[in-house]
Each structure stands twice: as structure tokens, then as C-alpha cells.
Amino acid sequence: MPFIRADEAVVHEIHGGRFVSYVRPDTGSRDVAAWRVEIPAAMVGPTHTISEEETFYVLAGRIRLTIDAESAELRSGDAAVAPAGSELGIANTTDQPAHIWVTTRVGLTAELADGTTFAPPWAH
What we know:
Blueprint: E1 10-14, E2 17-23, E3 32-39, E4 48-50, E5 54-60, E6 62-67, E7 70-75, E8 79-82, E9 87-91, E10 98-105, E11 110-112, E12 117-118
Antiparallel strand pairs: 1-2, 2-3, 3-10, 4-9, 4-11, 5-8, 5-10, 6-7, 6-9, 11-12
């Protein structure tokens, strides 16, 4: 099944963001997961450490992305790569929503600051 239609996307609302999952094992991908994140205005996501490399592409709006204590403001058209094992933080400090496209390997997990491990359903 090489084609994934918009109505096949699965929506997850977690940590204040809206994760719209397209590419994942049950849509035919063995190795890669990809999703769109909708980040509301003034949202700050929880800091977490990722088990797999993640890539980010800003579709619309602006975000502040922090990878291992290095921060940058990214706007539409900008991209970033977070290596496996890095600590990640994301925030939308504007009064407008932001939209980003994220890719990673299937099986990604994230360790939250309190030590709990989260296995995002959009990456499994």
C-alpha cells in the first residue's frame, strides 16, 4: 500500500499538541514513521530524550526547537535534525499555531524528564 490518503491519517492529541500520523507500519512502512504536528500558540512541550534520530521540517508558523541545550527559532521552510539520544524541547512562543512535519525510525521511544518512557503510537 504505497499511497496514504488524508482520511487514513490517525490523530493523537497528547502533551498539548495534535499529532497526525501518516507513515507507520499499519500504512505499509517497515522502517520510517512520519507525521504532522500542530502546535498551538503559546504551547511548550515536555522535554524528552529520544531513542532514534528525528528530522523536523516547519510547514507553517514558527517554533523554538532545543536539541541538547542548543536552541534555534525555526520558521516555515526551515529544518533540523536531532540525533538519537539527544534531549529535545519544542515550544511555540508566538500567538499563531505552527505546523511541522517529523520523520523518524519506526520504534522511537522518548524518556520524559520524570524518567517515564513513552512509546508514541504514531511511531509504532
